[in-house]
């Protein structure tokens, strides 16, 4: 019986090794992230464990595909020092209300969110192309809610973007403040916030608290907390 049990364990182990070997790369959490990996927990896991160099390489690849237009920004010192940040000027076919500063993870997560989810959701649910993202900024040297005794905000390290609304190719401008209460646009906005959870560490919207009534806070802390 002991020999038979060892044989069974060996067969199971061999099957596991073979299965792992033939596992598609996008299902394998230990293979490098690709821009073509589909959204999901495995992609999110890979995003969270990227090295700084791997992030920079993927951002450069995204630029080559015209998914993002950005510029490198020199490191800065002071109360809220910035390291390895970029200025994002455009997200592919989607323009911005203004450029914004972003850590590499924030910039890359934004690229994937727009290309893989935001643009398709606009076509599917709103019947129009996503044309522009309106935002309230990304970098601000402050504590959470500006409280003197609170920890530093994600904005203090350019690791969060506050999105206030969207403009569609058919001319519609949908703000988070009004659109969240509109039965015609709320399902789409809910779907957008929910989809952001696969890329950012946290996504906070109007139902989180009153401070987020007019925007989506998309930040890098945490692991897919969305509310």
What structural class do the secondary elements suggest?
Answer: alpha+beta
The main sheet comes to: 7 strands, mixed
In terms of DSSP E residues, the strand content is: 15-25%
Annotation field: number of helices: 6
- Global Rg: 20 Å
H/E series: HHHEEEEHEEEHHEEE
Please report the distance between the alpha carbons of the first and last residues: 54 Å
Report on this structure.
The protein is of the alpha+beta class. Helix content is 35%, strand content 20%. The strands form 2 sheets. Strands 3, 5, 6, 7, 8, 9 and 10 form a 7-stranded mixed sheet that branches. A 3-stranded antiparallel sheet has the order 1-2-4. The longest helix has 23 residues, at 104-126. It is globular. The model is unreliable at 13-20 (pLDDT under 50).
